[in-house]
Write a structure and sequence with these properties.
The complex is a heterodimer. By secondary structure, chain A is mostly helical. Chain A has one domain. Chain A is 60% helix and 0% strand. Chain A is built from five helices and no strands. In chain A, helix 1 runs antiparallel to helix 5. Chain A is extended, with a radius of gyration of 19 Å. Chain B has one domain: Arp2/3 complex 21 kDa subunit ARPC3, CATH 1.10.1760. Chain B has nine helices and two strands. Chain B is globular, with a radius of gyration of 18 Å. The model of chain B has no long low-confidence stretch (mean pLDDT 94). The chains are: A mainly alpha, B mainly alpha. At the A-B interface, helix 1, helix 2, helix 3, helix 4 and helix 5 of A face helix 1, helix 2, strand 1, strand 2 and helix 4 of B.
């Protein structure tokens, strides 16, 4: 597959976005912002309302994601390390998404070639 | 806006899985018919763009965080059906690999951000942008499309959260899933998206659409569609 000039440019922009991604963890830190609304852990919900809803308790650990929360080590307190993990997660995720979407599109769109 | 596991009852997430799978099936058929093979690399990039843009969490100072989704810009440039597939791929990878959004809630999250949002965005753009020749008009229509579609998708998500106490509570009135009802969920989600995240989605949508308008205007699905309608 040959990429044209614009497509190469977009790939570079995407890579730059991956490198800038730590903004997405640093800004919330600076402005003291927490979880997204409705995306709290079971413990946080307990702190809010005094109990963990039964269904929430049952389902909240339904899936163990290999790279939970875009970090390789959630216990690491170093902001620099976390930024690094976030960049790695971004590159990994964006690349995987790109490849899966390419393969899927090739499977779907076959009629012209 | 990525609903985690445990916040939606099965009575909610199972039907939403059904709706999403039906929509995705139609999307595959539509994309097969309407998207040219030369756009395949762009579709990969669009999905990756959506993935990475969702990692830019923005803070409401002292409060919650949120982010843009990228569905609006993908819907305008590559069409709403292509956006459905591209954003779904990003969301499913976020759920499976990064635990962002629940496994049980994949149907709901994909319906909200990859089906509802791109279609709302696309139709808002088509409704407002009657003059595709003027760059400034395209910019404004793209901004409004991104802004409103994210706000409306956030409100839809809030409705899914907010109906949980109504449909699933214990005998003594304790919530089984999301504990907050519509009167709390809707204002919370609507206000933060109206005041901050929607504006960011709008700026991203307008900037990227303008970029394509300057570099490869013939590619933009919504404008092609508009021109096609006019010559009919």
């Amino acid at each position: 597959m040959k990429l044209n000039k614009l497509q190469k440019k977009i790939l570079i922009i995407l890579l730059v976005l991956c490198l800038l991604a730590p903004i997405g963890i640093l800004l919330p830190m600076v402005f003291d912002a927490g979880d997204a609304w409705g995306e709290w852990s079971a413990q946080t919900v307990k702190d809010f309302i005094g109990y963990v809803p039964q269904g929430l308790e049952k389902y909240s650990d339904a899936w163990k994601a290999p790279v939970t929360d875009y970090t390789l080590n959630a216990g690491d307190k170093s902001v620099v390390h976390q930024s690094g993990y976030y960049i790695i997660s971004g590159i990994l995720g964006a690349t995987l998404t790109y490849v899966v979407m390419l393969l899927l599109s090739k499977l779907i769109i076959r009629h012209e070639e | 806006m990525h609903i985690p596991d445990g916040y939606l009852s099965p009575q909610t997430y199972i039907p939403l899985y059904g709706v999403f799978v039906s929509a995705a099936t139609v999307a595959v058929r539509k994309v097969k018919k309407t998207v040219s093979a030369r756009n395949i690399p762009y579709l990969g990039m669009a999905a990756a763009f959506s993935f990475i843009i969702m990692m830019f969490n923005l803070p409401v100072p002292g409060g919650t965080t949120g982010h843009a989704v990228g569905s609006a810009v993908i819907a305008i440039i590559f069409g709403p059906w292509a956006a459905t597939i591209a954003v779904s791929v990003a969301l499913i990878i976020q759920a499976l690999i990064f635990g962002d959004g629940g496994i049980t809630a994949i149907g709901a999250n994909c319906f909200n951000m990859a089906v509802f949002m791109p279609f709302i965005a696309y139709y808002i753009f088509m409704l407002i942008n009657k003059n595709p020749q003027k760059k400034s008009r395209v910019y404004i229509a793209s901004f409004i499309s991104g802004y409103l579609s994210l706000v409306l998708a956030a409100i839809l998500t809030a409705v899914e959260f907010g109906i949980q106490p109504l449909i699933a509570s214990t005998a003594d009135g304790k919530a089984l899933y999301c504990p907050y009802d519509l009167s709390i969920a809707i204002p919370a989600m609507a206000i933060e998206h109206l005041l901050l995240f929607g504006i960011v989605e709008g700026i991203i949508t307008a900037t990227v659409v303008s970029y394509f308008l300057g570099n490869e205007p013939g590619l933009i699905y919504a404008l092609q569609k508009r021109n096609g309608d006019e010559t009919k």
